[in-house]
Protein backbone atom coordinates (compact mmCIF):
# COMPACT_ATOMS: atom_id res chain seq x y z
CA UNK A 1 0.00 0.00 0.00
CA UNK A 2 1.11 3.54 -0.64
CA UNK A 3 2.75 5.41 2.19
CA UNK A 4 0.46 8.45 2.38
CA UNK A 5 0.92 10.93 5.22
CA UNK A 6 -2.21 12.18 6.96
CA UNK A 7 -2.66 15.90 7.68
CA UNK A 8 -1.37 16.83 11.14
CA UNK A 9 -1.77 19.67 13.56
CA UNK A 10 0.62 22.61 13.45
CA UNK A 11 2.09 21.64 16.81
CA UNK A 12 5.85 21.08 16.63
CA UNK A 13 6.27 19.51 20.05
CA UNK A 14 8.59 16.52 19.71
CA UNK A 15 6.37 14.55 22.09
CA UNK A 16 3.38 14.82 19.80
CA UNK A 17 4.58 12.86 16.82
CA UNK A 18 2.70 9.61 17.16
CA UNK A 19 -0.95 10.48 16.84
CA UNK A 20 -1.79 14.01 15.92
CA UNK A 21 -5.37 15.15 15.81
CA UNK A 22 -6.67 17.58 13.26
CA UNK A 23 -6.85 20.17 16.02
CA UNK A 24 -4.30 21.65 18.37
CA UNK A 25 -3.93 19.82 21.66
CA UNK A 26 -1.99 20.14 24.88
CA UNK A 27 1.18 18.08 25.11
CA UNK A 28 1.24 17.77 28.88
CA UNK A 29 -0.53 14.41 28.96
CA UNK A 30 0.41 11.12 27.29
CA UNK A 31 -1.01 10.95 23.79
CA UNK A 32 -2.53 7.53 24.54
CA UNK A 33 -5.11 9.35 26.68
CA UNK A 34 -6.52 11.14 23.67
CA UNK A 35 -7.61 8.05 21.81
CA UNK A 36 -9.04 6.18 24.76
CA UNK A 37 -10.83 9.21 26.22
CA UNK A 38 -13.16 9.46 23.24
CA UNK A 39 -14.42 5.89 23.56
CA UNK A 40 -17.95 5.73 24.96
CA UNK A 41 -20.02 2.91 26.41
CA UNK A 42 -23.02 4.21 24.49
CA UNK A 43 -21.26 3.69 21.16
CA UNK A 44 -20.12 0.19 22.08
CA UNK A 45 -23.63 -0.71 23.18
CA UNK A 46 -25.34 0.80 20.14
CA UNK A 47 -23.10 -1.07 17.71
CA UNK A 48 -23.56 -4.31 19.66
CA UNK A 49 -27.31 -3.88 19.27
CA UNK A 50 -26.81 -3.63 15.51
CA UNK A 51 -25.13 -7.06 15.48
CA UNK A 52 -27.87 -8.50 17.68
CA UNK A 53 -30.40 -7.13 15.22
CA UNK A 54 -28.66 -8.88 12.33
CA UNK A 55 -28.94 -12.18 14.19
CA UNK A 56 -32.54 -11.75 15.30
CA UNK A 57 -33.63 -10.76 11.79
CA UNK A 58 -32.91 -14.33 10.67
CA UNK A 59 -34.92 -17.49 11.43
CA UNK A 60 -31.77 -19.05 12.92
CA UNK A 61 -31.20 -16.04 15.25
CA UNK A 62 -27.44 -16.31 14.86
CA UNK A 63 -24.47 -14.94 12.92
CA UNK A 64 -22.84 -18.20 11.91
CA UNK A 65 -20.33 -17.85 9.10
CA UNK A 66 -21.77 -17.71 5.60
CA UNK A 67 -25.30 -17.16 6.91
CA UNK A 68 -27.50 -14.10 6.47
CA UNK A 69 -26.73 -12.66 9.90
CA UNK A 70 -23.00 -13.01 9.43
CA UNK A 71 -23.04 -11.60 5.90
CA UNK A 72 -24.84 -8.55 7.28
CA UNK A 73 -22.14 -8.26 9.94
CA UNK A 74 -19.20 -8.23 7.53
CA UNK A 75 -20.99 -5.76 5.25
CA UNK A 76 -21.64 -3.50 8.23
CA UNK A 77 -18.00 -3.56 9.31
CA UNK A 78 -16.81 -2.85 5.77
CA UNK A 79 -19.28 0.02 5.28
CA UNK A 80 -18.48 1.63 8.63
CA UNK A 81 -14.75 1.72 7.92
CA UNK A 82 -15.06 2.58 4.23
CA UNK A 83 -17.11 5.65 5.18
CA UNK A 84 -14.16 7.25 6.98
CA UNK A 85 -13.02 9.39 4.08
CA UNK A 86 -10.23 7.22 2.72
CA UNK A 87 -8.39 6.98 6.03
CA UNK A 88 -8.28 3.20 5.50
CA UNK A 89 -7.72 1.00 2.50
CA UNK A 90 -10.52 -1.52 2.99
CA UNK A 91 -11.17 -4.83 1.26
CA UNK A 92 -13.03 -8.08 1.55
CA UNK A 93 -11.01 -11.29 1.49
CA UNK A 94 -13.28 -14.12 0.29
CA UNK A 95 -12.66 -17.79 0.99
CA UNK A 96 -14.65 -21.02 0.94
CA UNK A 97 -14.95 -23.39 3.90
CA UNK A 98 -17.18 -26.29 4.83
CA UNK A 99 -20.03 -25.47 7.19
CA UNK A 100 -21.40 -28.13 9.51
CA UNK A 101 -24.44 -28.19 11.77
CA UNK A 102 -26.90 -30.66 13.25
CA UNK A 103 -27.70 -32.32 16.54
CA UNK A 104 -26.76 -35.35 18.60
CA UNK A 105 -28.59 -37.48 21.15
CA UNK A 106 -27.24 -40.20 23.43
CA UNK A 107 -29.41 -42.37 25.67
CA UNK A 108 -28.36 -45.08 28.13
CA UNK A 109 -31.08 -47.29 29.61
CA UNK A 110 -33.56 -44.73 28.35
CA UNK A 111 -31.87 -41.84 30.19
CA UNK A 112 -30.99 -38.86 28.01
CA UNK A 113 -27.32 -37.93 28.40
CA UNK A 114 -27.84 -34.34 27.14
CA UNK A 115 -25.31 -34.82 24.37
CA UNK A 116 -23.97 -32.14 22.04
CA UNK A 117 -22.77 -32.36 18.46
CA UNK A 118 -19.18 -31.97 17.36
CA UNK A 119 -19.27 -30.10 14.08
CA UNK A 120 -17.95 -32.01 11.07
CA UNK A 121 -19.16 -35.25 12.64
CA UNK A 122 -20.83 -37.53 10.08
CA UNK A 123 -24.40 -38.67 10.62
CA UNK A 124 -25.15 -42.07 12.08
CA UNK A 125 -27.48 -44.00 14.37
CA UNK A 126 -26.25 -46.91 16.47
CA UNK A 127 -27.42 -48.98 19.43
CA UNK A 128 -24.32 -50.80 20.59
CA UNK A 129 -22.17 -51.66 23.62
CA UNK A 130 -20.17 -48.80 25.08
CA UNK A 131 -16.45 -49.42 25.62
CA UNK A 132 -13.95 -47.21 27.45
CA UNK A 133 -10.87 -47.21 25.26
CA UNK A 134 -7.34 -46.03 24.67
CA UNK A 135 -7.63 -47.33 21.07
CA UNK A 136 -5.25 -50.23 21.71
CA UNK A 137 -7.91 -52.95 21.32
CA UNK A 138 -10.30 -53.56 18.39
CA UNK A 139 -13.63 -51.76 18.76
CA UNK A 140 -15.65 -53.37 15.99
CA UNK A 141 -19.36 -53.07 16.62
CA UNK A 142 -18.82 -50.79 19.62
CA UNK A 143 -19.25 -47.14 20.61
CA UNK A 144 -16.02 -45.73 22.03
CA UNK A 145 -16.13 -43.77 25.30
CA UNK A 146 -13.12 -41.46 25.60
CA UNK A 147 -12.11 -38.58 27.82
CA UNK A 148 -11.18 -35.12 26.72
CA UNK A 149 -7.43 -34.97 27.22
CA UNK A 150 -4.18 -34.19 25.48
CA UNK A 151 -5.13 -34.64 21.81
CA UNK A 152 -7.64 -33.03 19.52
CA UNK A 153 -11.27 -34.04 19.34
CA UNK A 154 -10.90 -34.82 15.65
CA UNK A 155 -7.98 -37.12 16.35
CA UNK A 156 -10.02 -38.96 19.00
CA UNK A 157 -12.85 -39.53 16.53
CA UNK A 158 -10.52 -40.67 13.76
CA UNK A 159 -8.62 -43.06 16.06
CA UNK A 160 -11.88 -44.56 17.29
CA UNK A 161 -12.88 -45.18 13.69
CA UNK A 162 -9.47 -46.64 12.84
CA UNK A 163 -9.93 -49.11 15.72
CA UNK A 164 -13.24 -50.22 14.25
CA UNK A 165 -15.72 -48.27 16.40
CA UNK A 166 -18.94 -47.19 14.74
CA UNK A 167 -19.24 -44.03 16.87
CA UNK A 168 -17.58 -42.12 19.70
CA UNK A 169 -18.70 -40.31 22.83
CA UNK A 170 -16.23 -37.83 24.34
CA UNK A 171 -16.79 -36.73 27.93
CA UNK A 172 -15.36 -33.57 29.44
CA UNK A 173 -12.46 -33.49 31.87
CA UNK A 174 -13.83 -30.56 33.86
CA UNK A 175 -17.20 -29.50 35.22
CA UNK A 176 -19.13 -27.61 32.57
CA UNK A 177 -22.13 -27.97 30.29
CA UNK A 178 -22.14 -30.84 27.84
CA UNK A 179 -18.99 -30.87 25.79
CA UNK A 180 -19.21 -29.49 22.27
CA UNK A 181 -16.75 -28.22 19.72
CA UNK A 182 -15.45 -29.07 16.30
CA UNK A 183 -13.63 -32.07 14.95
CA UNK A 184 -12.11 -29.88 12.27
CA UNK A 185 -12.92 -29.99 8.60
CA UNK A 186 -12.07 -33.39 7.08
CA UNK A 187 -10.10 -35.17 5.79
CA UNK A 188 -7.32 -35.99 8.17
CA UNK A 189 -4.46 -38.47 7.76
CA UNK A 190 -5.49 -40.77 10.60
CA UNK A 191 -8.68 -41.68 8.78
CA UNK A 192 -12.33 -40.69 8.54
CA UNK A 193 -14.39 -39.50 11.46
CA UNK A 194 -17.14 -41.56 13.07
CA UNK A 195 -20.38 -40.02 14.41
CA UNK A 196 -19.24 -38.18 17.54
CA UNK A 197 -21.11 -36.62 20.46
CA UNK A 198 -20.01 -34.89 23.66
CA UNK A 199 -21.28 -35.22 27.24
CA UNK A 200 -20.42 -33.81 30.66
CA UNK A 201 -17.72 -35.00 33.04
CA UNK A 202 -20.34 -36.19 35.51
CA UNK A 203 -22.21 -38.29 32.96
CA UNK A 204 -19.00 -39.67 31.48
CA UNK A 205 -17.64 -40.58 34.89
CA UNK A 206 -20.86 -42.38 35.79
CA UNK A 207 -20.69 -44.43 32.58
CA UNK A 208 -17.02 -45.19 33.14
CA UNK A 209 -17.69 -46.35 36.70
CA UNK A 210 -20.40 -48.70 35.45
CA UNK A 211 -18.05 -50.17 32.86
CA UNK A 212 -15.22 -50.53 35.38
CA UNK A 213 -17.63 -52.28 37.71
CA UNK A 214 -18.25 -54.94 35.09
CA UNK A 215 -21.65 -53.75 33.85
CA UNK A 216 -22.66 -54.04 30.21
CA UNK A 217 -23.69 -50.58 29.03
CA UNK A 218 -25.69 -50.21 25.83
CA UNK A 219 -25.82 -46.73 24.32
CA UNK A 220 -28.27 -45.35 21.79
CA UNK A 221 -26.47 -42.69 19.75
CA UNK A 222 -28.02 -40.65 16.96
CA UNK A 223 -26.12 -37.92 15.11
CA UNK A 224 -27.81 -35.89 12.39
CA UNK A 225 -25.37 -33.65 10.58
CA UNK A 226 -25.34 -31.49 7.48
CA UNK A 227 -22.27 -30.17 5.68
CA UNK A 228 -22.01 -27.66 2.85
CA UNK A 229 -19.39 -25.37 1.36
CA UNK A 230 -19.96 -21.68 2.04
CA UNK A 231 -18.25 -18.54 0.81
CA UNK A 232 -17.40 -16.14 3.60
CA UNK A 233 -15.26 -13.04 4.04
CA UNK A 234 -12.54 -11.52 6.15
CA UNK A 235 -12.59 -7.71 6.31
CA UNK A 236 -9.19 -6.02 6.15
CA UNK A 237 -8.64 -2.30 6.77
CA UNK A 238 -5.20 -0.69 6.87
CA UNK A 239 -4.45 2.96 7.49
CA UNK A 240 -3.50 4.79 4.31
CA UNK A 241 -0.88 6.62 6.36
CA UNK A 242 1.89 5.22 8.47
CA UNK A 243 4.93 3.15 7.58
CA UNK A 244 3.64 0.08 5.68
CA UNK A 245 6.83 -1.81 6.49
CA UNK A 246 6.07 -1.68 10.22
CA UNK A 247 2.53 -2.82 10.88
CA UNK A 248 0.39 -3.52 13.93
CA UNK A 249 -2.30 -6.10 13.11
CA UNK A 250 -5.38 -6.30 15.32
CA UNK A 251 -7.75 -9.26 14.96
CA UNK A 252 -11.22 -10.23 16.16
CA UNK A 253 -13.55 -12.87 14.80
CA UNK A 254 -16.93 -11.88 13.42
CA UNK A 255 -18.92 -15.12 13.50
CA UNK A 256 -21.08 -16.75 16.16
CA UNK A 257 -21.94 -20.37 16.81
CA UNK A 258 -25.28 -21.77 15.64
CA UNK A 259 -26.84 -21.52 19.09
CA UNK A 260 -27.16 -17.75 19.32
CA UNK A 261 -26.20 -14.23 18.22
CA UNK A 262 -22.71 -14.30 19.75
CA UNK A 263 -22.65 -10.75 21.09
CA UNK A 264 -19.95 -11.32 23.69
CA UNK A 265 -18.40 -14.12 21.60
CA UNK A 266 -17.31 -12.27 19.64
CA UNK A 267 -19.39 -9.24 18.88
CA UNK A 268 -17.51 -7.59 21.74
CA UNK A 269 -14.12 -7.98 20.10
CA UNK A 270 -15.46 -7.01 16.67
CA UNK A 271 -17.17 -3.87 17.97
CA UNK A 272 -14.25 -2.97 20.22
CA UNK A 273 -11.95 -2.92 17.19
CA UNK A 274 -14.52 -1.07 15.07
CA UNK A 275 -14.96 1.72 17.59
CA UNK A 276 -11.20 2.15 17.99
CA UNK A 277 -10.80 2.17 14.19
CA UNK A 278 -13.43 4.88 13.86
CA UNK A 279 -11.87 7.10 16.53
CA UNK A 280 -8.35 6.52 15.19
CA UNK A 281 -9.40 8.10 11.90
CA UNK A 282 -9.23 11.52 13.58
CA UNK A 283 -5.46 11.18 14.00
CA UNK A 284 -2.33 10.52 11.98
CA UNK A 285 0.03 7.62 12.62
CA UNK A 286 3.72 6.89 12.25
CA UNK A 287 3.27 3.12 11.78
CA UNK A 288 0.55 1.45 9.74
CA UNK A 289 -2.37 -0.02 11.70
CA UNK A 290 -4.26 -2.94 10.17
CA UNK A 291 -7.60 -4.17 11.47
CA UNK A 292 -8.51 -7.69 10.37
CA UNK A 293 -11.98 -8.97 11.18
CA UNK A 294 -11.77 -12.69 10.54
CA UNK A 295 -14.55 -15.14 9.77
CA UNK A 296 -15.23 -18.76 10.71
CA UNK A 297 -13.25 -18.81 13.94
CA UNK A 298 -15.89 -20.95 15.58
CA UNK A 299 -15.16 -23.74 13.09
CA UNK A 300 -11.44 -23.86 13.79
CA UNK A 301 -9.72 -20.47 13.26
CA UNK A 302 -10.47 -20.83 9.57
CA UNK A 303 -10.45 -17.13 8.68
CA UNK A 304 -7.22 -16.31 10.47
CA UNK A 305 -5.55 -19.43 9.11
CA UNK A 306 -6.57 -18.39 5.60
CA UNK A 307 -5.42 -14.82 6.13
CA UNK A 308 -1.96 -15.68 7.44
CA UNK A 309 -1.50 -18.35 4.75
CA UNK A 310 -2.25 -15.71 2.11
CA UNK A 311 0.70 -13.56 3.21
CA UNK A 312 4.10 -13.87 1.58
CA UNK A 313 7.15 -14.14 3.80
CA UNK A 314 7.93 -10.52 2.95
CA UNK A 315 4.46 -9.41 4.06
CA UNK A 316 4.70 -11.41 7.28
CA UNK A 317 8.04 -9.74 8.03
CA UNK A 318 6.31 -6.34 7.99
CA UNK A 319 4.02 -7.32 10.87
CA UNK A 320 5.65 -6.31 14.14
CA UNK A 321 2.85 -7.57 16.37
CA UNK A 322 -0.61 -9.15 16.31
CA UNK A 323 -3.07 -8.30 19.07
CA UNK A 324 -6.21 -10.42 19.29
CA UNK A 325 -9.45 -9.65 21.12
CA UNK A 326 -11.93 -12.46 21.63
CA UNK A 327 -14.64 -12.12 24.31
CA UNK A 328 -13.84 -8.86 26.08
CA UNK A 329 -17.17 -8.24 27.87
CA UNK A 330 -17.99 -11.47 29.71
CA UNK A 331 -20.70 -10.98 32.36
CA UNK A 332 -18.69 -12.59 35.19
CA UNK A 333 -15.45 -11.25 33.80
CA UNK A 334 -11.79 -11.34 34.62
CA UNK A 335 -9.23 -9.05 33.03
CA UNK A 336 -7.08 -11.67 31.36
CA UNK A 337 -3.85 -10.79 29.54
CA UNK A 338 -2.22 -13.38 27.28
CA UNK A 339 0.90 -14.76 28.96
CA UNK A 340 3.38 -13.86 26.23
CA UNK A 341 6.48 -14.35 28.37
CA UNK A 342 5.43 -17.82 29.52
CA UNK A 343 5.94 -16.98 33.19
CA UNK A 344 2.52 -18.29 34.23
CA UNK A 345 1.76 -21.11 31.78
CA UNK A 346 5.18 -22.07 30.42
CA UNK A 347 4.28 -21.34 26.79
CA UNK A 348 6.30 -18.46 25.37
CA UNK A 349 5.37 -16.36 22.36
CA UNK A 350 7.67 -15.12 19.62
CA UNK A 351 9.98 -12.20 20.50
CA UNK A 352 7.78 -9.19 21.20
CA UNK A 353 5.00 -11.21 22.85
CA UNK A 354 6.40 -10.64 26.33
CA UNK A 355 6.63 -6.92 25.65
CA UNK A 356 3.01 -6.83 24.45
CA UNK A 357 1.96 -8.55 27.66
CA UNK A 358 3.87 -5.99 29.72
CA UNK A 359 2.24 -3.11 27.87
CA UNK A 360 -1.19 -4.33 28.93
CA UNK A 361 0.00 -5.14 32.47
CA UNK A 362 1.36 -1.62 32.87
CA UNK A 363 -1.79 -0.11 31.41
CA UNK A 364 -4.18 -1.93 33.73
CA UNK A 365 -1.98 -1.34 36.78
CA UNK A 366 -0.78 2.21 36.24
CA UNK A 367 -3.31 3.88 33.96
CA UNK A 368 -6.62 2.14 34.64
CA UNK A 369 -5.89 1.21 38.26
CA UNK A 370 -7.32 -2.29 37.72
CA UNK A 371 -6.21 -5.78 38.64
CA UNK A 372 -5.41 -8.37 35.99
CA UNK A 373 -4.46 -12.03 35.68
CA UNK A 374 -2.34 -13.87 33.09
CA UNK A 375 -4.23 -15.97 30.59
CA UNK A 376 -2.93 -19.07 28.86
CA UNK A 377 -1.09 -18.29 25.63
CA UNK A 378 -2.17 -21.65 24.25
CA UNK A 379 -3.08 -21.00 20.64
CA UNK A 380 -6.83 -21.25 21.11
CA UNK A 381 -7.90 -18.07 19.30
CA UNK A 382 -7.04 -16.14 16.18
CA UNK A 383 -3.58 -15.09 17.29
CA UNK A 384 -2.50 -18.73 16.89
CA UNK A 385 -1.81 -18.65 13.12
CA UNK A 386 0.31 -15.53 13.62
CA UNK A 387 2.22 -17.18 16.45
CA UNK A 388 2.72 -20.29 14.31
CA UNK A 389 4.28 -18.03 11.68
CA UNK A 390 6.74 -16.66 14.25
CA UNK A 391 4.94 -13.32 14.63
CA UNK A 392 4.74 -11.73 18.07
CA UNK A 393 1.24 -11.86 19.53
CA UNK A 394 -0.81 -10.82 22.53
CA UNK A 395 -4.28 -9.78 23.56
CA UNK A 396 -7.04 -9.72 26.13
CA UNK A 397 -9.73 -12.19 27.22
CA UNK A 398 -12.47 -11.95 29.87
CA UNK A 399 -13.29 -15.65 30.06
CA UNK A 400 -15.69 -18.18 28.57
CA UNK A 401 -16.95 -21.43 30.09
CA UNK A 402 -14.20 -21.59 32.70
CA UNK A 403 -15.12 -21.12 36.35
CA UNK A 404 -14.22 -17.98 38.28
CA UNK A 405 -12.06 -18.69 41.31
CA UNK A 406 -12.45 -17.21 44.79
CA UNK A 407 -9.23 -15.27 44.23
CA UNK A 408 -10.61 -13.82 40.99
CA UNK A 409 -13.80 -12.85 42.80
CA UNK A 410 -11.67 -10.83 45.22
CA UNK A 411 -9.87 -9.16 42.31
CA UNK A 412 -12.79 -8.49 39.96
CA UNK A 413 -16.03 -9.01 41.85
CA UNK A 414 -18.71 -11.25 40.37
CA UNK A 415 -19.42 -14.78 41.54
CA UNK A 416 -16.86 -17.46 42.35
CA UNK A 417 -17.82 -20.95 41.26
CA UNK A 418 -19.75 -19.61 38.26
CA UNK A 419 -18.64 -19.48 34.62
CA UNK A 420 -17.15 -16.26 33.34
CA UNK A 421 -19.87 -16.36 30.69
CA UNK A 422 -22.87 -18.48 31.61
CA UNK A 423 -24.24 -17.88 28.11
CA UNK A 424 -21.11 -19.02 26.31
CA UNK A 425 -22.07 -20.62 23.00
CA UNK A 426 -25.75 -20.33 23.94
CA UNK A 427 -28.87 -18.49 22.85
CA UNK A 428 -28.50 -16.06 25.74
CA UNK A 429 -25.30 -14.50 24.36
CA UNK A 430 -27.07 -11.30 23.40
CA UNK A 431 -26.70 -7.64 24.33
CA UNK A 432 -28.04 -8.29 27.83
CA UNK A 433 -25.11 -10.68 28.34
CA UNK A 434 -22.48 -7.93 28.04
CA UNK A 435 -20.71 -6.50 31.05
CA UNK A 436 -20.29 -2.91 29.96
CA UNK A 437 -17.68 -2.13 32.63
CA UNK A 438 -15.40 -4.82 31.23
CA UNK A 439 -16.28 -3.80 27.67
CA UNK A 440 -15.28 -0.17 28.00
CA UNK A 441 -12.14 -0.92 30.02
CA UNK A 442 -10.91 -3.44 27.45
CA UNK A 443 -11.79 -1.10 24.59
CA UNK A 444 -9.69 1.59 26.26
CA UNK A 445 -6.86 -0.91 26.66
CA UNK A 446 -7.06 -1.61 22.92
CA UNK A 447 -6.92 2.12 22.23
CA UNK A 448 -3.89 2.45 24.50
CA UNK A 449 -2.05 -0.28 22.58
CA UNK A 450 -2.98 1.21 19.21
CA UNK A 451 -1.86 4.66 20.31
CA UNK A 452 1.44 3.32 21.63
CA UNK A 453 2.38 1.28 18.59
CA UNK A 454 1.04 3.81 16.11
CA UNK A 455 3.70 6.10 17.50
CA UNK A 456 6.56 3.65 17.86
CA UNK A 457 7.56 0.01 18.11
CA UNK A 458 10.61 0.99 20.16
CA UNK A 459 9.41 -1.13 23.11
CA UNK A 460 9.53 -4.27 20.96
CA UNK A 461 12.71 -6.20 20.10
CA UNK A 462 14.33 -5.33 16.78
CA UNK A 463 13.15 -7.25 13.75
CA UNK A 464 14.88 -10.58 13.48
CA UNK A 465 14.40 -14.10 12.12
CA UNK A 466 10.90 -15.37 12.79
CA UNK A 467 10.51 -18.37 15.03
CA UNK A 468 7.56 -20.60 15.78
CA UNK A 469 6.00 -19.52 19.03
CA UNK A 470 2.94 -21.50 20.02
CA UNK A 471 3.17 -25.18 19.15
CA UNK A 472 -0.05 -26.98 18.44
CA UNK A 473 -0.78 -30.59 17.59
CA UNK A 474 -1.04 -29.82 13.90
CA UNK A 475 -0.44 -26.86 11.64
CA UNK A 476 -4.02 -26.80 10.39
CA UNK A 477 -5.68 -26.16 13.73
CA UNK A 478 -9.19 -27.41 13.47
CA UNK A 479 -10.41 -29.35 16.43
CA UNK A 480 -11.20 -29.10 20.14
CA UNK A 481 -13.49 -27.30 22.55
CA UNK A 482 -13.87 -24.80 25.23
CA UNK A 483 -12.74 -21.24 24.73
CA UNK A 484 -9.56 -22.67 24.14
CA UNK A 485 -11.40 -20.61 21.86
CA UNK A 486 -10.47 -23.68 20.09
CA UNK A 487 -9.74 -26.34 22.49
CA UNK A 488 -12.48 -24.37 22.13
CA UNK A 489 -11.74 -26.14 19.24
CA UNK A 490 -8.74 -27.95 18.79
CA UNK A 491 -6.14 -28.52 21.29
CA UNK A 492 -7.73 -30.26 24.20
CA UNK A 493 -6.37 -29.57 27.63
List the helices and strands and how they pair.
Blueprint: E1 20-21, H1 32-37, H2 41-56, H3 68-82, E2 88-108, E3 111-112, E4 116-119, E5 124-132, E6 143-147, H4 153-162, E7 167-171, E8 181-182, E9 196-199, H5 201-212, E10 218-239, E11 243-253, H6 263-280, E12 283-284, E13 287-294, H7 302-309, H8 313-318, E14 319-325, E15 336-338, H9 353-367, E16 373-375, H10 384-388, E17 393-397, H11 406-412, H12 436-455
Parallel strand pairs: 4-8, 5-6, 6-7, 7-9, 11-13, 11-14, 14-17, 15-16
Antiparallel strand pairs: 1-12, 2-3, 2-10, 4-9, 5-10, 10-13, 15-17
Helix pairs in contact: 2-3, 2-6, 6-12
General description of the model:
The protein is α/β, with parallel strands linked by helices and 493 residues long. 28% of the residues lie in helices and 23% in strands. The chain contains twelve helices and 17 strands. It has helices spanning 32-37, 41-56, 68-82, 153-162, 201-212, 263-280, 302-309, 313-318, 353-367, 384-388, 406-412, 436-455, and strands at residues 20-21, 88-108, 111-112, 116-119, 124-132, 143-147, 167-171, 181-182, 196-199, 218-239, 243-253, 283-284, 287-294, 319-325, 336-338, 373-375, 393-397. The protein has a 15-stranded mixed β-sheet that branches. Helix 2 packs antiparallel against helix 3 and helix 2 crosses helix 6. The longest helix is centred in the last third of the chain and has 20 residues, at 436-455. The radius of gyration is 23 Å and the shape is globular. The two termini are 41 Å apart.
